[in-house]
Amino acid sequence: MRIGIAFDLKSDRTARADGPDDLLEEYDSEETVAAIAGALSELGHDPVLLGGGRRFVERLLADAPELVFTIAEGAGTRSREAHVPAVCELVGVPCTHSDPLTLAVTLDKALAKKLAAADGVATPRFAVVEDPAEAAALEFDLPAIVKPNQEGSSMGVRLTSRVRTREELRREATRVVRDYGEPALIEEFLPGTEMTVGILGTGRRARVVAAMEIAPRTVATAEFVYSLEVKRDWEARVEYFVPPRVPPASLGAVEACALAAYRALGCRDVGRVDVRLDAQGNPKFLEANPLPGMNPRTGDLCILSARSGLSYVELVGAIVASALERSAR
Fold first, then answer.
1. CATH code given to domain 126-188
2. What is the CA radius of gyration of the chain?
3. 292 — phi, psi (to 5°)?
4. Whole-number mean pLDDT of the chain?
5. Cα 174 to Cα 181: distance, rounded to the nearest angstrom
6. What is the pLDDT of residue 17?
7. Do 187 and 285 touch, CB atoms closer than 8 A?
8. What is the per-residue pLDDT across 293-321, written as a single tens digit (0 to 9) for each?
9. How many other CB atoms sit within 10 Å of the CB of residue 76?
């Protein structure tokens, strides 16, 4: 099968000179694209590089493949990850991963939390502020964590994002709104184990691949933030455990929480859901990533899949198989 790969490269983008150093964090590397193309070739497919943005649209219209495998992050608004699947829907070409609605909803962390909570999924208490002056006035227990509301890949999440005082809360909200030009999400900070859950499939056919514990090496779990600094230096700062070092009943509850959030948000084919335990050991949904990183060395989904016995080629094959099964119905 001829499969086009939609992607956006860091090397094709230019960050603004006065911006933070992570404005291009979500975009991919040539290494990731080559890995996906290699896996598709090994599976017997013919990969075609489509790129992203206008280039993607032009190439799709000129010579459409039979399927698009997308890792394209897009650019612009909170709907940017929905651009590629929306174009594919428009021209009638099947596409892997979630549909435009889910990709837009999940990039807005607060909106995703509201929808998941409406379906009975537990999530930490949270608030969204557009004006940093509102942050200090919130009736909100501390510590809390402050993040950009509409970003992924830990963009804007720093070691300073965990706040313990009203002044720190105001400072971090100011940084987020100023640097990223969007509202700040202020969320109850949970002191328990942080885990991420890989999921394959769609709807009732969705299944957990594995859960992975993200354990800090240099700080206590109760203070740990899976920040940009940590992700960039993950081999020194964290240990990954598959399965997590939690009791079986707790692990079952974590996986159930992640799967419930995945289904509530309408995720398709593949996704990764972040969950953390509260002070009582109860799992709570943090956020969902229906377009998880596919770098075979550093992507959390790829790491947890490999450690659970699912090879990179098998992971790519499962995503393609799910998309083809959907499109055939």
1. 3.30.1490
2. 19
3. -70, 150
4. 96
5. 10
6. 75
7. no
8. 999 999 999 999 999 999 999 999 999 99
9. 8
Q: How far is CA 324 from the centre of its chain?
A: 23
pLDDT > 80? residue 290: yes
The model's pLDDT over 110-138, given as tens digits with 9 standing for 90+, comes to: 999 999 999 999 999 999 999 998 887 88
Residue 77 has pLDDT above 90, yes or no: no
The answer as to CATH 3.65.10.10 being correct for domain 105-121+190-328 is no
pLDDT of residue 11: 87
Q: Which tokens sit at 227? A: 């920040």
**What's the rounded Cα separation, in Å, for the pair 263 and 243?**
22
Whether 23 has a pLDDT exceeding 80, the answer reads: yes
> For residue 202, what are the contacts with CB-CB under 8 A and spacing of at least 6?
267, 268, 269, 322, 325, 326
Burial class (CB in 10 A: 0-12, 13-18, 19+), 284: buried
Beta partners for residue 207, in sequence order: 200
Is the domain defined by 2-97 classed in CATH 3.40.50.20?
yes
Cis peptide before 248 (omega within 30 of 0): no
Phi, psi (degrees; rounded to nearest 5) at 153: 55, 30
Q: Kindly list the domain boundaries of the chain, sorted by start residue.
A: 2-97, 105-121+190-328, 126-188
Q: Name the token pair of 251.
A: 């692990």
How many residues comprise the chain? 329
Q: Which residue, among 111, 256, 293, 272, has the nearest Cα to 185 in the 3D structure?
A: 111
Conformation bin of residue 181: beta by default, left when phi > 0, alpha when psi is -120 to 50: left
